[in-house]
Amino acid sequence: MTLLQLKYIVKIVECGSMNEASHELYVSQPALSSSVKELENELGIEIFTRSSQGIALTVDGAEFLTYARQVLDQASLLEERYKNAKPRKQLCSVSTQHYMFAVEAFVEMINSIKSDEYEFTIRETRTKDIINQVANMLSEIGIIYLSDFNKDVIGKMLREKHLEFHPLFRAPLHVFISRNNPLAGKKKVTMDDLKPFPFIQYEQGEEGSFFFAEEAVWPEYSPKQINVTDRATILNFIIGLNGYTVCTGIDNGDLNNEKIVTVPLDTDETMLVGWITNERAKLSKAAENYLEKLKSVVTDHGYNLID
């Protein structure tokens, strides 16, 4: 086993494909594939599964990746100490549902670091993708919610992928609506009140289901429904089409408070928002810093943290 082989494994995971990794490493794909195969044979494990859809980490591969990164970090420290090499970039990747507070905390984390070089990634994406990205070590942290409706299905999926859910806070449900909406002045709204208006939800892909929905409740029947993939679009549709979406109620500077308001939803349902990690991975210092900023942002918005 060599450090070069470990670097190959980490780069393949970062790129998500053998072909892209070979280009970045300036190594031919057959040579790269052969090196990985030799390592697998030496260790007696399968690190990647290979199919027509591409490659993915196995359970053994995910565990091996954790150790490989630790070894490379130690090797980098040795080089820095004895060869005056430049320190490795600070790295941190987060996958999240479409939460403004998650992005706000990410900005605060980046502003707080003292480093000449870093490489950070935040992905606002679908629920199932968040779970898979943390399981495959593409992200250190994932931010999702559980409810009475989805907790059994999501919980089972997390256990199967060796992921841990850490509760952050519990949020009563709200809706985002236009300030010009006739419901904007109400202290609470019901799903019946919202029936005349377009329901906007985040699209969950072909394999999506209600269990993966980002909205904790939805209308039994909505004659006007729009599926979107990004947060900016959903806010534009709320303003331009007088639509609504169900949310935690936390807003920040991204929300145009002159045009959009949050109104409590009359329901007993809540969202238990938390973060997921791979039980086989140790968080980087940058990821730990992000969690501290995340907790700070949540409390600044008036929510109590769950110990």
UniProtKB/TrEMBL annotation:
Keyword Transcription in annotation: yes
Highest taxon in the source lineage: Bacteria
Keyword Mitochondrion: no
Residue span, HTH lysR-type domain: 1-58
Residue intervals passing through the bilayer: none
InterPro entries referenced in this protein's UniProt entry, alphabetically: LysR_HTH_N, LysR_subst-bd, WH-like_DNA-bd_sf, WH_DNA-bd_sf
Pfam families membership: HTH_1 (PF00126), LysR_substrate (PF03466)
Keyword field: DNA-binding, Transcription, Transcription regulation
Family that this chain belongs to: Belongs to the LysR transcriptional regulatory family.
Protein name: LysR family transcriptional regulator
Species of the source: Bifidobacterium hominis
